[in-house]
UniProtKB/TrEMBL annotation, chain A:
Alphabetically ordered keywords of this record: ATP-binding, Cell membrane, Membrane, Nucleotide-binding, Transport
Span of domain ABC transporter: 7-256
GO BP annotations, alphabetical order: peptide transport
Name under which the protein is recorded: Oligopeptide transport system ATP-binding protein
Organism (species): Cytobacillus firmus (Bacillus firmus)
Subcellular location(s) per record: Cell membrane
Record Pfam families: ABC_tran, oligo_HPY
Keyword Hydrolase: no
Any Gene Ontology CC annotation: plasma membrane
SMART domains (UniProt xref): AAA
InterPro entries, alphabetized: AAA+_ATPase, ABC_Ni/Peptide_Import, ABC_transporter-like_ATP-bd, ABC_transporter-like_CS, Oligopep_ABC_C, P-loop_NTPase
UniProt main location, coarse: membrane
TrEMBL record, chain B:
Listed name of the protein: Oligopeptide transport system ATP-binding protein
Residue ranges of domain ABC transporter in the record: 6-252
Keyword Nucleotide-binding tagged: yes
Pfam families xrefs: ABC_tran, oligo_HPY
Gene Ontology molecular function: any one: ATP hydrolysis activity
Species assigned in the record: Cytobacillus firmus (Bacillus firmus)
GO terms (BP aspect): peptide transport; transmembrane transport
SUPFAM superfamilies on file: P-loop containing nucleoside triphosphate hydrolases
Transmembrane portions of the chain: none
Family: Belongs to the ABC transporter superfamily.
Record key words, sorted: ATP-binding, Nucleotide-binding, Transport
Xref: SMART domains: AAA
Keyword Nucleotide-binding: yes
Gene3D superfamilies linked to this entry: P-loop containing nucleotide triphosphate hydrolases (3.40.50.300)
Length: 355, 311
C-alpha cells in the first residue's frame, strides 16, 4: 500500500517558566492511504501535540519542533513557512476538533464557513460554493440543508455542529483527516452516528484518518492500526487485533484492565494504574512508565527500553520482550482477551533504529 | 430487600414556569433508593439526570412531587436547623473537579467547611485531626492539607471533593458524573475508592453518569432516563441482559466495546418515539414486568412484555 504520511523521530518541546517541556520525544509512524490510525493515551501523553505538529498548528513560540521529519507524500513539511502551510491546511490535511461548540465561528453562517475553504482552495465562485456547501451538509446527514446553510452555529445541536465541522473538514477532499477526540463531547448514541458517518465517508473518498481518542471502545470500532502513547513516546503500535488480543506493553495491559467490561458480571476491584503520569519538564531516567509499572525491572529505572518487533506490524517498547527478561503474566482481565495470532514472530526482534 | 432510605414520588422540576420557554427537565419520576445500595442513573445529556440529582438534594426547589429521606420530606418550608440536618446526611460530589473547589481556599479549609458549619469539632486540634484522617481515607496525605487546589491533578482534586463530602459523615452521596472529566487510568482509581468507602462506611450512592460500562460496574440497580422521564429501572445485570424499553436497547447498542471483533459485527438500533404508537388516552406509567424490573409503558405494551419475558 502507498504511504501517505511518514513521521520520523518527531520531537516537540515547549518553553515554559518551569523549564522546557518535552511533550513529544521521538515519535515515528507512518500512515497508508485509506487507513485509520488511532492514537490513544492519557491527557498529557503528547497525542494532541503530535497531531497538531502534523498541521503545524502548535503555537511557535513557545512550541518548537526540535527534531525529526514529517513527510507528506515524501515532502518534508517541517521547514515550510506559514504561507506554504496555508496551501496544505484544509486542502491536503484537515482537522476535526474535539469541541464543536468553540471551534466554529459563532458570528458566521455555517454555509459561509464551508464556502471559505472552497473559495480559497478550489477557486470556486460564491454561487458554486454555496451549492457545494448544501451538498456537503446533505452528505454529512443534516436534514433540510438548504435552510441550514444560512443558519448560525448556535442554531445547531452538538451532534449537528460536529457534522458541520466534518463537512468543513471534507470540503476540499483532503488526503488526510486528523480527528482529535471528535466524539468525546457527544452522547453515545450521537457518537455512534458520527463514527458511522466518518467510516462511510472514508470509504467514499479514500481519505486516511488519524483518530485521537482515549476511549478504547471507539478505537476498537474505527481503527485499522493503533498507536499507544505514554509520556511523549509511542510505547506500543500494531494492528487493532494485535493491540486488543495480544498486547505486550504493561501500559497497554493497564489501560485494558482498568476498563470494566459490559459482558462479565464480576464485581472484583478494577485494576487501576497507580500514580499519575510523569512531569515532562524532567522526564525520568530510563522507562517513563517504570514508576507506575508493577512489572518494572531493575533496568527500567536505568536505561530506556528499545523498540522490539513482535510481528510484521506489531512493535512494543519494553524490556519485558528482551530474551533475558523474566517471564511475566499479564493481569487476569488482559489474559482473558489474549489469543494466539498467526502473524506473530517466534521471538521478538530488537529494532535497530527507526523502522 | 433492605429498608428504603429515599423515596422519590412523582418528582417534577420545571424551569421558566408559565413562560413560553418552559422546560420540563424532570417530569414526574418515581423511584426508591435502598439503604447501602448504589443506584445508577444514565441517559443522554439533557435528559434530566443531573437535574434529578440536584433536585433531590434541594439545590433546586422541586416544582411538584416529594423527596422523602427516611420518611421526611426534604422539600417544603424548613427552619435553618432542619435544613442543616438534611445537609449533613446528604452530600454531593460534582463532575468538574476544577470548577467545584474554591481556588482561594486551602485544602484543609475546603474539607473542614462542613465541619465548621455543623460544629463537629470542639477544638482547632480536633478539626485538623479530622482533616488529616479524611485526607488519608481518600488516599492523599497530611502534607496536602495546606496546599491550594491548583497544585493538584484532576484525580487528586476529585479525591479532595470526596473528602469534603465525607467530612460531615453523610448517609447518602449523590455523585454527579464524578469520573467523566478524568483520564481512563485515573477513573478506575476513583471508582475503586468510592466502592471501598461504601463498604467501610455503609454509604448509599446515587451515581449519575453517561458511561454505561462504569455505571454497570458500580451500580446495584440502574435507572434509564429519557426526556425527563424514567423509562426503565432494573437490577444492573438484568438491565444489560434483558433491556426491555426500546430506548434502553438503542442506548446499549451504541456503546462501543473495547473488542474489535464484536465491533465489526455490531448492529446499532436507533430509537424513534413513534414505535410506541400510543393512543391519546393511554395511561403511561412504570410497570413491573419481572421482579424488580420496571418499564415505563402502556397497558398494552405491558401485556406484550409480560408475555415475552415472564417465565
Amino acid at each position: 500500500m502507498e504511504k501517505l504520511l511518514e513521521v520520523k523521530n518527531l520531537e516537540v518541546s515547549f518553553q515554559t517558566y518551569g523549564g522546557t517541556v518535552k511533550a513529544v520525544r521521538g515519535v515515528s509512524f507512518d500512515l497508508h492511504k485509506g487507513e485509520t490510525l488511532a492514537i490513544v493515551g492519557e491527557s498529557g501523553s503528547g497525542k494532541s501535540v503530535t497531531s497538531q505538529s502534523i498541521m503545524k498548528l502548535i503555537p511557535m513560540p513557545p512550541g518548537r519542533i526540535s527534531g525529526g521529519q514529517i513527510l507528506l507524500n515524501g515532502d518534508d513539511i517541517v521547514p515550510k513557512t506559514e504561507k506554504q502551510m496555508e496551501k496544505i491546511r484544509g486542502k491536503e490535511i484537515s482537522m476535526i476538533f474535539q469541541d464543536p461548540m468553540t471551534s466554529l465561528n459563532p458570528t458566521m453562517r455555517v454555509g459561509n464557513q464551508i464556502m471559505e475553504v472552497l473559495i480559497k482552495h478550489q477557486n470556486m465562485t460564491k454561487t458554486d460554493g454555496k451549492n457545494r456547501a448544501v451538498e456537503l451538509l446533505r452528505l454529512v446527514g443534516i436534514p433540510m440543508p438548504e435552510k441550514r446553510v444560512n443558519q448560525y452555529p448556535h442554531e445547531f445541536s452538538g451532534g449537528m455542529r460536529q457534522r458541520a465541522m466534518i463537512a468543513i473538514a471534507l470540503a476540499a477532499n483532503p488526503k488526510l483527516l486528523i480527528a482529535d477526540e471528535p466524539t468525546t463531547a457527544l452522547d453515545v448514541t450521537i457518537q455512534a452516528q458520527i463514527l458511522e458517518l466518518m467510516k462511510d465517508l472514508q470509504n467514499k473518498m479514500d481519505t486516511s484518518i488519524i483518530f485521537i481518542t482515549h476511549d478504547l471502545g471507539v478505537v476498537a470500532n474505527v481503527a485499522d492500526r493503533v498507536a499507544v502513547m505514554y509520556a511523549g513516546q509511542i510505547v506500543e503500535m500494531g494492528t487493532v487485533d494485535e493491540i486488543f488480543y495480544d498486547p505486550r506493553h504493561p501500559y497497554t495491559w493497564g489501560l485494558l484492565a482498568s476498563m470494566p467490561s459490559l459482558e462479565n458480571d464480576d464485581k472484583a476491584e478494577l485494576a487501576a494504574i497507580p500514580g499519575t503520569p510523569p512531569d515532562l519538564t524532567n522526564p525520568p531516567k530510563g522507562d517513563a512508565f517504570a514508576a507506575r509499572n508493577q512489572y518494572a525491572l531493575a533496568i527500567d529505572f536505568e536505561e530506556e527500553p528499545p523498540m522490539f518487533q513482535i510481528s510484521e506490524t506489531h512493535f512494543a517498547k519494553t524490556w519485558l520482550l528482551h530474551p533475558d527478561a523474566p517471564k511475566v503474566e499479564p493481569p487476569e482481565a488482559v489474559k482473558r482477551r489474549m489469543r494466539q495470532l498467526s502473524s506473530t514472530f517466534e521471538n521478538p526482534v530488537l529494532v535497530k533504529e527507526g523502522k | 430487600m433492605a429498608e428504603k432510605l429515599l423515596q422519590i414520588k412523582n418528582l417534577k422540576q420545571h424551569f421558566n414556569v408559565g413562560r413560553p420557554n418552559m422546560v420540563k427537565a424532570v417530569d414526574g419520576i418515581t423511584f426508591d433508593i435502598y439503604k447501602g445500595e448504589t443506584l445508577g442513573l444514565v441517559g443522554e445529556s439533557g435528559c434530566g439526570k443531573s437535574t434529578t440529582g440536584r433536585t433531590i438534594i434541594r439545590l433546586y426547589d422541586a416544582t411538584d412531587g416529594q423527596v422523602l429521606f427516611e420518611g421526611e420530606d426534604v422539600h417544603g418550608k424548613k427552619s435553618a436547623k432542619e435544613l442543616k440536618k438534611f445537609n449533613r446526611k446528604m452530600q454531593m460530589i460534582f463532575q468538574d473537579p476544577y470548577a467545584s473547589l474554591n481556588p482561594r481556599m486551602t485544602v484543609a479549609d475546603i474539607i473542614a467547611e462542613g465541619i465548621d458549619i455543623h460544629g463537629l469539632a470542639k477544638s482547632k486540634k480536633e478539626r485538623m485531626e479530622r482533616v488529616y484522617e479524611l485526607l488519608e481515607t481518600v488516599g492523599l496525605n497530611k502534607e496536602h492539607a495546606n496546599r491550594y487546589p491548583h497544585e493538584f491533578s484532576g484525580g487528586q482534586r476529585q479525591r479532595i471533593g470526596i473528602a469534603r463530602a465525607l467530612a460531615v459523615d453523610p448517609d447518602f452521596i449523590i455523585a454527579d458524573e464524578p469520573i467523566s472529566a478524568l483520564d481512563v487510568s485515573i477513573q478506575a482509581q476513583v471508582v475503586n475508592l468510592m466502592k471501598k468507602l461504601q463498604r467501610e462506611k455503609g454509604l448509599t450512592y446515587l451515581f449519575i453518569a453517561h458511561d454505561l460500562s462504569m455505571v454497570k460496574y458500580i451500580s446495584d440497580r440502574i435507572g434509564v432516563m429519557y426526556f425527563g422521564k424514567l423509562v426503565e429501572l432494573a437490577p444492573a445485570e438484568d438491565l444489560y441482559a434483558n433491556p426491555m424499553h426500546p430506548y434502553t436497547q438503542s442506548l446499549l447498542s451504541a456503546i462501543p466495546l473495547p473488542d474489535p471483533e464484536t465491533e465489526r459485527s455490531r448492529r446499532r438500533k436507533s430509537y424513534d418515539t413513534a414505535v410506541h404508537n400510543y393512543a391519546e388516552n393511554e395511561k403511561l406509567e412504570m410497570r413491573e414486568i419481572t421482579p424488580g424490573h420496571f418499564v415505563y409503558c402502556s397497558e398494552k405494551e405491558y401485556n406484550e412484555l409480560k408475555a415475552q419475558y415472564a417465565k
